[in-house]
Amino acid sequence: MSALADRYGRRFPYLRLSIIPACNFRCTYCLPHGYKADPQAAGPLSLDEIRRLLTGFTHMGMHKLRITGGEPSVRRDLTDIMRTAAAVPGLTKLAMTSNGTLLNRRLGEWMDAGLNALNISIDSLDRACFARITGYDRMQKILEGIDMALDAGLPSVKLNAVLMRGVNDDQLPRWLDYLRDHRVGVRFIELMQTGDNLAFFRDHHVRAIELETQIREQGWQELPRAADAGPAREYRHPDYAGRIGIIAPYSKDFCAGCNRLRVTATGDLRLCLFGEFGIPLRPLLQSDDQVEDLVRAIGGQIGRKEQGHFLHDGRTGIIPHLASTGG
Ligand code: SAM
Ligand code: SF4
Q: How would residue 2 be classed by pLDDT, with cut points 50, 70 and 90?
């Protein structure tokens, strides 16, 4: 086995795989006009291609997969993809990031297929605000789905909320009410600039540190970082069942703890979310006996991973929006 490690000593046990670029929402910061299919674009990886890809990565020490998109639940064979991934030897954690629109209907099926961690994006607990952000009045159904996942004992349930100045950055009190008795972590994510959202970013970017300061002042205490922790800084408070995480991509050292690689829905390896290039792996996913070539190809590219992103300089790389790569 050749381990996945780069020249800065970082290891990559974690793969984020987008399984479809399409989405059924139109979040203002991501796909404000909804998803528009490119008729020239190749289709997403098939089930067999995904199985081979995961086999190659697990040969290199990857043990956690996050299925993302676009919106992964738009893909009809999502449950088959989960079942296939869960059966790949060495893959122990199977996570998904979803907008949660199908959660209340599909949770049981997904858990039976091997899903053991779920991040649901819910940018506001105010129904009207949620509808303004996403384009759909679905907050109540999504909250129902989250309660079902918690009641069903899914091992990890987390919520994601993107912070936007003048949109939802005054809603901490609502979140605190929710977290008082919901044993769930909400991670507030600082809005990131992408190729398509510059004007929106300029109007609504707010530093996550502002919210972090507020919670610290209210007695939330930062938890020690686990060795394999992702980029979130986690907080707890004795009066609350839930936790708060802060994801601040513009903060110093954000990239030092990077532990993940990404593959797009069409099989391009992306060494960084904001990288300048993709490495096409699809030609190496056409038969089961290509796994060694695949492992060699991935291993040969890791050295090209940059130490950090260039977002501070406004360089967003090749992605127009996060739906295209899998956020
Ligand atoms: N559709 C799914 C969802 O929304 O959870 C999965 C894909 S979405 C691209 C993954 C995550 O990226 C979501 O939590 C979303 O809010 C976040 N995201 C998208 N665009 C972003 C941006 N420009 N800045 C920060 N987070 C963003
Ligand atoms: Fe779709 Fe997720 Fe992007 Fe919202 S953030 S438009 S749900 S891909």
A: low
